[in-house]
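Incident review: delayed structure delivery

Summary: a single-chain prediction request sat in the queue longer than the usual turnaround. Root cause was a stuck worker, restarted by the on-call engineer. No data loss occurred. The affected request and its eventual output are reproduced below so the record is complete for anyone auditing the incident later.

Affected input:
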Amino acid sequence: MSKWACVLGMLAALATSTTAARAAGVEPALEPDGELLARIAALPANTWMKLPPPKVTGDLDWVSAFDWNSMRRVGPYGRDYSNKMAWMPDRKRAIYAGGGHNIRPYNDVWEYDLAANIWVCLYGADPPAHGRPPEWIKENLAIEDGVLKTRRGGPPRLSHTFDGWNYDSQRRVAFMPESLRGAVFVNSKVVAQGLGMTDAELAARWKPAPYLLTFDPYGRKWGYITENVPLCGRDPSARYIAHLKSYWVSSSELALYDPDARTKKKLSKKDGGGGYASSTAYDPDTRSVVVIVPPGKEGTAPTWVYSFDTETWRLAQPKAPTGGRSSSCYFDYDSAAKCCVLFTTNVKPHMWLYEVTANEWTPVETQGPQPSTGYMIGYYDPARDVVVHYSNGDVWVCRAKKVRK
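Output delivered after worker restart:
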């Protein structure tokens, strides 16, 4: 089959998936860029391609008030400690959120459609609540169902997502563990004053952490799960485990969480790895989570694998040749290559593939225009079989493949 026959076949399949997406109620409906998709389909392996500037649409009325008019041109920007995007198979797009530390500490939510090269703001940011006086709290926040929220229902001051941002394709919500109740740096005494309560009354009404924050891209609203959530610290890892229809959460405790039953099953941490700044990727073919940590001075770091079939840990490599920090990498599963794909700024080369069955890390030497890494975010797009990398308004794609010697 010729290259162009392959491209035309891919475009025909895309048109079918676009029609299906519209029938499923995916809004806004976006027209795919056929020329761009043909270029992506013809992209050689292990080669970066920089895309034309993305278009931006959606709920953008808020950006002027926040003095971020540039978002109308370039999209959300990346945020501190919030490098993960999550693929939504039902929408064929990736979803992103994350509160920056000092810059862009917002609760806005975005999705990116590679086929159309368009960012969509699904939820425009509410003004962040930290550092506000009681009068502002009274006008802008409320406690509903034991949760402190903005008047639109959003978290008052969203945390970093660290390694916790995921998408539940069965329930069609994004989710993240949250140890600070979605109210980072928000002073509880000021909240009590603003809401006309004593400290004790607020403590009785405001449910304690941890939470699972959720976001519904169809209803465009935030949600909160507060019952029996696995204990977590500031930098939890989490993954959606489709065959168990549950959330794997690794932090202060390791557990599987059933969001329907609101129950958790504690798992053993014996011989396990991870911890602060770790990153994870879920391999559905081997039903395993791969866990990496920041490399040491010599450039190596341990790699662990958790098996859901045996519910046990394995130290796969005590001194793997690469690793990653959740604030400076993204780690996902490449369903075409059957490998976990890592982009990290902690070691060179920046891109690596890890195969669970072979227990093998392979460096990927990439060609083409190399992506910038400032405030980077990324994910693997299985519909187009490429890694998508976004940094400071620009988008690159690369089809990572293992080169056998």
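Verification: The chain has one domain: 3-267+366-398.
Action items: add queue-age alerting; document worker restart procedure.
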